[in-house]
Design goal:
The complex is a heterodimer of chains A (about 600) and B (about 130). Chain A contains 25 helices and 18 strands. Chain A has about 600 residues and is α/β, with parallel strands linked by helices. A 5-stranded mixed sheet of chain A has the order 7-8-6-5-9, with helices on both faces. In chain B, strand 3 and strand 4 form a beta hairpin. Chain B contains 4 helices and 5 strands, in the order H-E-H-H-E-E-E-H-E. Helices cover about 35% and strands about 20% of the residues of chain B. Classes of the chains: A alpha/beta (about 600), B alpha+beta (about 130). Chains A and B meet through helix 4, helix 5, helix 6, helix 9 and helix 11 of A and helix 1, helix 2, strand 2 and strand 5 of B.
Chain lengths: ~600, ~130
């Protein structure tokens, strides 16, 4: 309904109407959309005006040049165009408060308590926000036994992946015989799409140092090591600065804060092998040997670094320790679920509107993280699955979106907490391809020491590649499942035992996609290009693209034929299914089937 | 620097609070540019340079430009938090050098929040 009141006519509304009629006809929408002229809407100041029914959407200040965009977006794609809409002045949204924005309000910051607030290269700013008060308390008012008790009461569990109770781990080290004892911080975060630990060290390195100091006091350690990957240059740099400043202040070194407690930390930079995130492999790497895992037991608590009792925790775990000492274990234990206390930091990536780092209480549902905090999937696409725990984790489908997140629930769903990577996938993601991608990663990162992992991951990758290429058989599917179970059962370390998770979960929740690849030779998401067929829509090619010929010129197989201004076509017998034509066509004329 | 004793820690804390939390003496305005890896990748260094340039050009002695880590919403980097003494902090997102110029002119000098570049006012809750 285009306004044809005097005011709007003076603002050229008839021209807008004519443009609208012809654009609608050009798009072939004339039978669905009727253009009506109306009398004065009474809001002449914002004319030319237009109301779209039945939605009741009110557009203002339209010009002839706006019409093609409006028709394409609103009528063809069903997306009302925000910038032409009228916003009444009194309801104009004022600038929201941080705590009105779900991305921030649903988070609870403990490990990330200083994020974005302090200059990580100035120890004074950490101290200004109560930094090192927990250390002062631990050194002056608590015995090592009392520190341990608080950590046990808190229910804190290892944030690196396995979720082992931190207090219990410390207790094992305290009881172990042998001197000296060591503490280690595992900063070898290696999951694709995970950056929690990097961000903590970058934005608040002292929180990790203070946590290690308190842990060292509890277990009676004199030396600590931070193992951090060299691929995190900024984190390494800020950690080094923080260590130097802590030493200058006498917060590291001899006679810390004049209490007689001695402790210092050295940094060991990792070369970026995924397996070095595994505790025994990490220790081996710190000692200067190849980063390969060994069988456990004996645990690191008894035979760790240099064969001495060692307490190894992840970056995020250490960062949680100072608030626990400051506020008490009971305070921490009130947050979260029965068996998983406190908060967890997740890195939210993939097909999600708000990419970023979020810290949420345990027990929050996937739905809350993905929709409330993450803002949902971009482009109006459908959410399909979320991969938690990186290549060691699994894919959790839409059916389980109301699952409260804790260590037990994720494990039961076939995935794991892992270090906290969360990769969101939409309907355009092929789950078989995802499984293949993660397996290609673990296969590449397998250290090769044990046979099940070395050979099994290769075997699984071969089968998955076969399936995505369209040569898979039903026997392959059975073999894949069998190998996956053996690798999970028989591998030496966590890399191997968890590597089959992406395969097993996608087979469990998305079996129909595997069947489509094998039986129908089709990839439902059109990701596996060898299973696609490509054709060019002649109408779109001519009308929108005027037979521009980009696809013909760029096709590496010379499989596309056609003349300028005429429809082009793909010769299927020559096509290598590379998909270049799809990527290059500006007019979306190449149809993938 | 002398090594701290237990009883010194509170003194350092008070002094550091005064210096960083925008009270008298510390300046009127503090702009914190978020420089995690994500921010730097998105161009935060240019944002800092642009801000320092504005300070220098306008001889704004009561404006502090400082840096901090990732603010969490990596997809909206570069981000900066602007605090004017006595007012709630404002988070600016998707910054460019031109936007920094506008923020200096309108927000810092004329006292009007540049709403179209701002994400929100206030701060997050810790614990």
């Amino acid at each position: 309904m285009v306004c044809a009141g005097t005011g709007c006519v003076a603002n050229r509304s008839p021209e807008v109407r004519d443009a609208l009629v012809s654009e609608i006809a050009r798009r072939g929408l004339q039978n669905e959309i009727q253009v009506v002229t109306t009398g004065c809407n009474g809001f002449c100041g914002a004319g030319p005006l237009m109301v779209v029914q039945p939605d009741g959407i009110f557009y203002q200040q339209l010009g002839v040049k706006d019409v093609p965009h409006l028709v394409e977006e609103h009528f063809l794609k069903g997306r009302p165009v925000q910038k032409f809409m009228y916003v009444p002045p009194e309801t104009r949204t004022p600038l929201p408060k941080m705590m009105d924005i779900p991305f921030f309000s649903r988070q609870r910051l403990i490990a990330l308590r200083n994020r974005g607030l302090i200059d990580p290269e100035r120890i004074d700013e950490y101290i200004a926000r109560d930094g090192y008060t927990a250390l002062a308390k631990a050194l002056s008012q608590m015995t090592p036994q009392q520190i341990l008790e608080e950590v046990k009461i808190s229910g804190l569990r290892g944030r690196g992946g396995a979720g082992f109770p931190t207090g219990t781990k410390w207790e094992h080290v305290i009881r172990a015989e042998g001197e000296p004892k060591y503490v280690i911080c595992n900063g070898d975060e290696g999951d694709p799409g995970a950056f929690m630990d990097r961000s903590i060290v970058e934005s608040d390195p002292h929180s990790v140092i203070e946590g290690m100091l308190i842990g060292a006091r509890a277990i009676g350690a004199r030396w600590g090591v931070v193992y951090i990957r060299n691929e995190y240059p900024l984190a390494v740099q800020r950690l080094m600065i923080a260590l130097d400043q802590a030493r200058e202040y006498g917060l590291l070194g001899d006679d810390i804060l004049g209490t007689g407690f001695d402790f210092d930390i050295s940094v060991s930079r990792g070369a970026g092998a995924f397996v070095c995130g595994e505790a025994t492999a990490l220790v081996s790497a710190v000692e200067g040997r190849p980063g390969e895992p060994r069988a456990r037991p004996p645990r690191l608590a008894q035979h760790g670094l240099w064969n001495k009792p060692t307490c190894l925790n992840n970056v995020e775990t250490w960062a949680n320790v100072p608030p626990i000492i400051n506020h008490g274990g009971a305070w921490f234990a009130e947050i979260g679920t029965e068996k998983s206390k406190g908060t967890k930091v997740f890195s939210l990536v993939g097909k999600i509107n708000n990419t970023g780092l979020v810290e949420v209480p345990m027990g929050i549902t996937l739905r809350e993280i993905i929709y409330d905090i993450g803002g949902g999937v971009p482009g109006g696409k459908k959410f399909k699955a979320v991969q938690t725990g990186g290549p060691s984790g699994g894919c959790i489908p839409n059916e389980l979106i109301d699952l409260p997140i804790d260590f037990e629930n994720l494990t039961e769903a076939g995935s794991m907490m892992g270090s906290g990577g969360m990769v969101i996938m939409d309907e355009d993601t092929c789950m078989v391809d995802v499984a293949r991608y993660f397996l290609a990663f673990t296969q590449d990162e397998s250290c090769g020491k044990c046979t099940p992992c070395r050979e099994g991951t290769q075997l699984m990758l071969d089968i998955l590649t076969r399936i995505t290429d369209g040569h898979g058989t039903m026997e392959d599917l059975d073999a894949l499942e069998e190998v996956a179970k053996v690798v999970a059962e028989a591998s030496l370390c966590g890399l191997g035992t968890s590597a089959p998770n992406p395969v097993l979960t996608t087979m469990r929740y998305f079996r129909e996609e595997y069947l489509a690849h094998i039986e129908a030779h089709k990839c439902p998401a059109h990701v596996c290009r060898q299973l696609n067929t490509y054709r060019i829509d002649p109408v779109i090619c001519v009308e929108r693209g005027h037979g521009c010929g980009v696809c013909r010129r760029e096709c590496p197989e010379k499989a596309i034929f056609g003349e300028k201004n005429q429809a082009h076509r793909v010769d299927a017998s020559l096509c290598s299914k590379c998909g270049t034509c799809v990527d290059l066509c500006h007019f979306n004329a190449v149809i993938v089937e | 620097m002398p090594k701290l004793k237990l009883e010194d820690l509170a003194g350092v804390r008070e002094k550091a609070r005064k210096a960083t939390l925008l009270r008298e003496g510390a300046g009127r305005v503090k702009m914190t540019v978020h420089m995690g890896t994500c921010g730097i990748a998105a161009g935060a260094r240019k944002i800092v340079e642009a801000a320092l340039h504005e300070v220098e050009e306008g001889d704004l002695r009561d404006v502090m430009v400082t840096t901090s880590g990732c603010a969490g919403l990596c997809s909206r980097e570069p981000m900066a938090t602007l605090e004017v003494v006595g007012e709630a902090p404002v988070k600016y997102v998707d910054l460019t050098e031109a936007k920094v110029k506008a923020i200096f002119k309108e927000h810092i000098l004329e006292g009007r929040i540049v709403e179209q570049y701002a994400l929100a006012i206030g701060s997050e809750r810790a614990y």
